[in-house]
Amino acid sequence: MKLLIKWILSALALLCVAYLYSGVEVRSFGAALIAALLIGLCNAIVRPVLVVLTLPVTVITLGLFLFVINALMFWAASGIAGSGFQVHGFWAALIGSLLYSIINLVIESLTSRLLFRE
Length: 118
Known about the structure:
Strand content: 5-15%
Number of helices: 5
Strand order of the largest sheet: 1-2
Protein name: Membrane protein
Radius of gyration: 14 Å
Pfam family, one: Phage_holin_4_2
Keywords: Membrane, Transmembrane, Transmembrane helix
Oligomer: single chain
Low-confidence stretches: none
Largest sheet: 2 strands, antiparallel
Transmembrane segments: 28-46, 53-77, 89-107
Order of helices and strands: HEHHHEH
Number of strands: 2
Shape: globular
């Protein structure tokens, strides 16, 4: 149940990003659900491999290269999702991924306090 709620809230966060920033387009809630699933899968499967492969660059840039990796995962998900979720370029992916991360962080902190008390 927690996973389903987090998935729906991530889709809502993606809709918020599209509302706040014109470089990211989401056509419907269904497209946001698919895009949130794809972003989650990219972050779970591809991102760890990229983090390990780019470790020297990440160390040299004091961790700032992780923003580039996040943007690439965001952009890759838009490429896989098709026309329902579009990101217009790398810089739009960078800004969109930053906004998405911030909104998800706020949602996660609120839901952990309100819904998921153990």
